[in-house]
Amino acid sequence: MDRLQAMQVFTRVVETNSFSRAADTLNLPRPTVSTVIQSLEAHLGVRLLQRTTRRLNLTPDGAAYYERCVRILSDIEETEAAFSHATTGPRGKLRVDMPGALGRMIVMPRIHEFHARFPQVDVMIGIGDRNVDLVQDGIDLAIRIGTLSDSSLVARRLGLYQRLTVASPMYLERHGRPETIDDLHDHVAVNYFFSRTGRLMDFAFWIDGHRVELKMRSALAVNDAEAHIAAVLNGIGIAQSGHFMSYGHVEAGRLVELFPEHRHRPVPISAVYPHNRHLSPTVRVFVDWMAEIFEQSPLINYGLSDVPTAPARDAAGDTVAQEDV
Fold first, then answer.
1. Are 323 and 213 in contact, with CB atoms under 8 Å apart?
2. Are 189 and 309 in contact (CB under 8 A)?
């Protein structure tokens, strides 16, 4: 039995809580994963996992063994990276997840630059607004938008996300321009809803130092950022859309920003990853590269200089709640 592989298989089964998902993320047949775990338990002479029809639970021995495996595997990865990275650069597979609009507009137009710089890193990028579980789905790294909430993942801030309240000249010509926030009750919105919960995203404003939320009558609701901005451009209603998607349209006159003095404070755009990936050279170079392109992107930074951010906890060691998108 290859004890190092057995440790890798065992930790992945624990982290994904599934033999099948562990097999998929390790590119192994499922029977192989089951055989490895059985052989490992026989070798150690203890039961590591309690299996039920619905989930896997660690035994006390399994929990202790898992903690030691994580430390050992991290030490091995760090040791190998210290030597291989210096001579050949980072290598291996990297699974990344990111929101659709950010991925298509910011990352994908420049991904060829990362490949040219690190040709031995095989990147698998999932693009969409599904709220994935990084550990259970075997994701090494994700881009998330929102305020920081807990310490289950490591996070690094990449930029800022701010919503603008916008409408098309066509809509304003037909329905008039709202002069106050209260006037919005007489208008219709293109709303955004969250796929996981079906909840509509409330309009949010910053008034006299406080967050003020408003529910607007809906003309249309979508769960895709690009469909959202397309509907606004076509004059269906008023919306609050991400700065990086709407600011260029405002500059070109295709959209009009409403209540710029009451923009809600922006929230972080963060790269997040599990604690056991913080020493991975592939994760490190991809995060550094994303920080570089986000800093250079006018779509992220233009018009947001010296803007105070919404109150949030320190990014170090925190993950994000994906509700502010």
1. no
2. no
How far from 286 is each of 90, 187, 237, 252, CA to CA, in Å? 10, 44, 38, 33
Helix, strand or coil for residue 315? coil
- Mean pLDDT of the chain, nearest integer: 85
**Residue 216: domain span:** 163-262
35 in the same domain as 23: yes
Q: Could you please report the per-residue DSSP string of 261-312? A: GGBPPPEEEEEEEEGGGTT-HHHHHHHHHHHHHHHH-HHHHTT-TTPPPPP-
Q: Report pLDDT digits (tens) over 108-142.
A: 999 999 999 999 898 999 987 777 778 777 788 99
Which pLDDT does position 320 carry in this prediction? 38
CATH number at residue 282: 3.40.190.10
The reported pLDDT for the residue numbered 278 is: 65
User: Amino acid identity, residue 253?
Assistant: G
The CA distance from 217 to 148, in Å, is 30
- The CA-CA-CA angle for residues 318, 23, 119, to 5°, reads 70
